[in-house]
Every structure is written in structure tokens, then in C-alpha cells.
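Obj: model holo form, ligand = zinc ion.
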Amino acid sequence: MASQHNPNLSKNASLVHAFLARHGSPASAYEILDGLRDKGISAPPTIYRALDQLVARGLAHRVESLNAFVACDHPAHDDANGFAICEDCGSVQEFMDPKVVSALNALAKAQDFDLRHATIELAGQCAACRVEASHV
Ligand SMILES: [Zn+2]
Ligand SMILES: [Zn+2]
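Output (holo C-alpha cells):
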């Protein structure tokens, strides 16, 4: 699918997706709610339903360790994905590496474990913050 626009999304899910894409860094459900209040969304369940829809379609991900959500910029997805989270500025880079996916699958297989879904979250410092730190 080449188009960014998804006609099957509900209006609220489209609003939430646009908010996350604009936001650029992880946003909690309450930050999303705050950001969309002027669009007529005022109830947390509305936000959660919209997020469920986006996550189910791979248009957004939940960053577990931050309890926040990011828009996904990888249209084609494997089951496993990871995030590099900067502890200084809060930015999140999504990454995917087939080597990681196959390593996780091999690990699960060795444990006779039926892997359905895996998320890797790395905490550290992003390149931009490292550059800033070295100039102080
Ligand atoms: Zn993604
Ligand atoms: Zn940073």
C-alpha cells in the first residue's frame, strides 16, 4: 500500500494517527486526548478505541516501557519490532532487523515456545543528544 491515507479508518482513528505523526515522539493517551480536545474528542475510551484500531493495523505502536504510542513509519511490517528510546530527549526511533527477528524466532523455538509477538525496547542516548553533549 503506497498511500498514507487509509479510507477504512474511523474518523477518530485518523485524527489520532495525524496527531501522532505530527507529535513525532511518543505520546500517552492523555497527551493525545489533550491534543484532540478541540477536535471534539473528550473521552479516554474514544482515544483507546482509536489507538486499538491503529495498533491492530500497524499504523501505530505501543511503547511499553513509556506507556505511550508512536505513529509507525514502516508500512510493511514483521511481527517483531524494536524501539531505541532516548532517555534525554524522549525521541524514539523504530528499527527492524531481520537478523533480530530470526534470532528471536530461533530463541523461541529452542524453548519450544510459540512466539506471537515481540517488542524490543532499547534505552540510551540518541545521536542528536550525544552531539549536543559533546559541544557543552
Ligand atoms: Zn512500525
Ligand atoms: Zn535524544
